[in-house]
Design brief:
Elements lengths: L2 H12 L13 H20 L7 E7 L6 E2 L1 H5 L17 E4 L8 E6 L5 E6 L1 E2 L2 H9 L9 E2 L3 E4 L6 E4 L1 E2 L4 E8 L19 H14 L3 H22 L12
Parallel strand pairs: 6-8, 7-10
Antiparallel strand pairs: 1-11, 2-9, 3-11, 4-5, 4-11, 8-9
């Protein structure tokens, strides 16, 4: 369902007869419905920091002698601009993956024909550790060149930094999470998997019921929300696994 479809379902199931025809420039009941759905989806997206449906993988080629890569270079031109274009993937950069690091960062090498010759994990370490280890004490990070084995993200700029500095072109894969999607257009489709779109209907109905002080509608759809939320957790929250690194 797109944003308008969801709002129409809320309208019909609530019985308030808002007769909603579009999500833009709404007034009265229509405005309440549109805001209820949009806010409900925002709340859902920030409820967890590791929803699978909000995770993306950036792939970029390194440049020999260049050890840092901006968000635009790593993710692409749409990384910092929400175009609200339903025909294009929603890839607005939010933050780099800093959990489940054993399968979130990889580096590939290929031959002249483009065939992959090797693929290995990149070890992500926090920026302060990376800085003290490779960037401080007068060290020039570009001096040591070779196949990168470490990667970090700058605390402020979020640029990715590799060590050693790439000595040739490699392909780097890096997982990140998108910014919460704000629904504003009729045809926009939530990045939530389609089988769970009804949870946005339920959350819209809950907010609508609160607005009009209708406890019976709130209780009915709050229970439905809780059931579907449990299923969403089981489907879209990765299992937590402890990471172990050798002491030496």
């Amino acid at each position: 369902m797109n944003f308008l479809d969801i709002c129409k379902r809320v309208d019909t199931m609530s019985g308030v007869q808002g007769m909603i025809q579009g999500v833009e420039n709404t007034i009265g009941v229509q405005s309440v419905i549109v805001n209820a759905v949009a806010e409900g989806f925002l709340d859902l997206q920030v409820e967890r920091l590791n929803w699978i449906f909000m995770r993306r993988t950036a792939k970029f080629g390194t440049t020999p002698g260049q050890y840092s890569y901006s968000i635009i270079e790593a993710v692409g031109p749409d990384a910092t601009t929400d175009l609200h274009d339903p025909t294009r993937p929603y890839n607005v950069f939010g933050r780099w993956q800093k959990k489940h690091l054993w399968d979130s960062y990889f580096i590939e090498a290929d031959d002249a024909a483009g065939n992959i010759t090797s693929r290995k994990p990149l070890r992500f370490i926090d920026y302060r550790t990376f800085r003290s280890r490779f960037l401080m004490s007068g060290k020039d990070p570009s001096v040591k060149e070779g196949k990168p084995t470490f990667i970090t993200a700058h605390d402020v700029t979020n640029e990715l930094i590799l060590h050693p500095t790439p000595d040739k072109r490699y392909w780097v894969y890096a997982d990140y999470f998108v910014e919460p999607q704000l629904l504003t257009r009729n045809s926009e489709v939530p990045i939530l998997p389609a089988s769970f779109h009804l949870i946005l209907v339920y959350r819209g109905l809950e907010r609508l019921a609160n607005h009009y002080s209708n406890p019976s509608i709130y209780q009915r759809y709050s229970a439905a929300d809780a059931v579907m939320l449990g299923n969403l957790y089981r489907d879209q929250v990765p299992a937590e696994v402890a990471e172990k690194y050798p002491v030496a």
